[in-house]
Amino acid sequence: MEITKKPKIKDIPYDEFTDNDSLEKLVNELNQGRTNVILGVLDDVVNWGRSNSLWPLTFATSCCGIEFMALGAARYDMARFGFEVARSSPRQADMIMVCGTITNKMAPVLKRLYDQMADPKYVIAVGGCAVSGGPFVKSYHVLNGVDKILPVDVYIPGCPPRPEAFYYGMMQLQRKVKIEKFFGGVNKKQKKEQSEE
Amino acid sequence: MEEIKYIEPAALRNEMLRLRNEAKMDFLESLTGMDWGVPAEDDAPGTVRGLGIVYHLESTETHERVAVMTSTLDREHPELPTVSDIWKTAKINEREVYDFYGIIFVGHTDMRRLYLRNDWVGYPLRRDDDPEKENPLRMDNEETVDETTEIELSADGTIKNKKDVIFDDEEYVVNIGPQHPATHGVLRFRVSLEGETIKKIDPMLGYIHRGIEKMNESLTYPQTLALTDRLDYLSAVQNRHALCMCIEKAMGIEISERAQYIRTIMDELQRLDSHLLYYGCLAMDLGALTAFFYAFRDREKILDIFEETCGGRLIINYNMIGGVQADIHPNFVKRVKDFIKYLRGVIHEYHDIFTGNIIAQNRMKGVGVLSKEDVISYGATGGTGRASGWHCDVRKRMPYAMYDKMDFKEIIYTEGDSFARYMVRMDEIMESMNMIELLIDNIPEGEYKVKTKPIIKVPEGQYYQAVEASRGEFGVFLESHGDKYPYRLHYRSTGLPLADIVDTACRGEKIADLITVGGTLDYVVPDIDR
Amino acid sequence: MFDFSIVTNWVHSTLTSVMPEGWAVLIECVVIAVWIITLYALLAIALIYMERKVCGFFQCRLGPNRVGKWGCFQVFADVLKMLTKEIFNPKNADQFLYNLAPFLVIIASFLTFSCLPINKGASILDFNVGVFFLLAASSIGVLGILLAGWGSNNKYSLIGAMRSGAQIVSYELSAGLSIMTAVVLTGTMSFSGIIEYQADGWLIFKGHIPAIIAFLTYLVAGNAECNRGPFDLPEAESELTAGYHTEYSGMHFGFFYLAEYLNMFIIAAVAATIFLGGWMPLHIGGLDGFNAVMDFIPGFVWYFAKAFFVVFLLMWIKWTFPRLRIDQLLSFEWKYLMPLCMANLLLMTLMVVFGLHF
User: Fold this and answer.
1) Which helix (H) or strand (E) holds C319?
2) Closest approach of chain C CAs to the CA of A18, in angstroms?
3) I want to staple B494 with a disulfide (CB 3.0 to 4.6 A). Which of A160, B50, B416, B471 is the partner?
4) C-alpha span between B316 and B319 (Å, rounded)
């Protein structure tokens, strides 16, 4: 049976998101391996649950961290989406929002944190510094983009990005979670050899 | 341009002791490492060459200021005498100089690198060093080294190597950080415990060291402005103000009075923003989460004002060399006045919910007491210094912008405990509101930016300028050799003395008090690490 | 007042008429077990939702409101997610203790939960030392916490668990003494007996001053018992980054999470039962018409209303006050709260002896 998943967010039309191509490509890849009807419905239910309850890990190194705090505060209030339970233990968090510059000294620490997280886990690179090094790209001590050490799901550019931009990125992540195939195969981003290192 | 006296390394210690004891220079404001390069044939006589240091000293009693410098031509094993027993702040600053330039200080008890990994090869800020070539990204975990070798100069002039231990093998050392719950950033403390009592704390910095000072040496002056906002992002306007003032002072540019008024008002708004966030984060650290939301709700109103005029919420990008980037928005005056009226009405809520609470008072009173001598010796300026009785406000000591033409109080408390530090900032909120009210109705007409040349070249010389940032004295030391790039642009960090003084404040307290002390000292880590 | 024992007796008699006694009891036990687990889960979901909304309103923001109307499906999404998370076994952890700990906490929670009468005749465990049994069963939870801290092979979990253990053990004394004060007044330890005693007025009215003091001290001690509110040092660690449940993920963590909320509910329900009358409606002696109207509202509505009211009070306290330090916490208990409780017990005894209560 073909999976016809259309990742939908309540109140925001599908066409208003600018990056639908990568999601459609993902769905096509998943369609290569078929699944039956019952698992398909169960998939949808579980994915609905998972996408509405993404708990971030409290990880902020510099300026973008303050915008993350403003996101949790009263005006922007990410609790409306269910994201406000920010756990400080990596084992209980679902996603890590890398807010702020990652330096060479911090990189092994970040990798260790990511490894400690429980599957299924996601990474959002927030801000210019995490996406590509940002204003500090020429520095001798800055990692030019966190995707050099972690598999990133969503990039949120900006310096710092506005809280609305945060929301856009998090909704993109929600859409991505909604189309994942949960039963009968797992969408891991690292190959088996990489994760066994 | 200031006169900086040159002193030979051999005579340095005596001169420093004389300055400290006779001239009463008890505040070491800034200690900057320099690399003046190798001697060249066409050097004018008296040109300073080699690796060296510039010291800025001030006396807290007479307010006299002196700057001295020293250097050594040895690049293989550069050695200079330490001053860390004269001024306690020199201990951590000399570690920074060792980290960046490789100068070993004779008599320093803790000669470890400060920001970079122990296995880093080379000294990045030296002119002939190529940091990236020798240091690819190392993903293995860093080894913790608990022993250092001290070079001790004994009385008869011989040099001995002495071993210094930071933590013994038997001590129970607990690691706090670098991943904290999101308030203060990536700072790592190694704490030696005895039960619940803290015996010693060793801060490990450098997890957000972005190499800004090295980057500055290859950026033009307008480009260097962009990075100042990202240092202490809660004093963004004030940091940029300091750098702009330093460059303007060096070039002799006079900015218009309208621009001065605007800069002062923006500074005070930024101070309000920072203190509100301080209140929220302190309350959150102590467990009263609701206060955090109240503080952020009010902070958003200030951010709205910033956004309307400057375009940015956190990274403001407003001050420019010669003035400000754009004129204030027509709504600015009205919105600021409305906001101040609103904040005066709600500030009592903050005191009701947190200050008067018996639990909060028990957690803060008598915790982390710092004496006035300690605070001056460590150079912990800002609210921390003023809570221990030190009159360290830069707006009174070295007035700039509109501060010498305004009448405002400097908030001083004398107890030196966490509660005093907290109350200093709450009172400063009220004082900032008064200051803004004095200025907001009287902004004169004029241009907001003076015309400057398209390529900015600062005349040769050494310049220092400081402002009262939200957290303390933020200083800019600029040495220029006439280029369009700075030769050396060093920032006197507000947070480095504060990270250093955590050890003194927390000896003998419990672990829970470490959080209170850290929260009330109010440091922001990117400012410490630069 | 609708008496639920009518239903239970009917069920028992129909079952015993078609099968031997043993089988009937077995089937009843299975049904009750399913009922407890379902009620537990539903209450946990309701409480978590209530906490997020209530705390949101205190902090002048909206809580969850996108997942279902007013966010009512938010907790279901959380539960689904927790069920599908990977469960870890850290390499050097003590496997048996590490896996046992969440179950101990949940079992303690279930046992105390089943003591509470929801309606007249609708209590699962009701015998003559009900209160004593409740206090004993709630102590099993401490074991779970200590095992979690020890078995995780993590310095911070251990410190957190030790602190939590010390805290719970200390505050159990005050909680127990407050309940004993009520027992002195009612003369019985069984829950149904205590509630019957309150048929003509709730205990806080009947016992006036000592009962009100006992109610307040029970709330404070109970708050500390379930690691909530100003006493949440061991777990809400912005200090040591997590607590005894750092190394747990997935459903193991879910058990700790649920048990925390249910423990809070149990404390509130016990306070409501003993001091506010449980399922007994508000009766004012002499006003028969009023009493008849009050009797019309079913018992379980009274019970849940009172319990949720006390839960609201506990949440209010949590979201207002900062945290106490561990030594302040323990000195508060041993130097102030417990002497107060003992003095109160004495006062209540004197009052009963001289017949000064209503």
Assistant:
1) none
2) 22
3) B471
4) 9
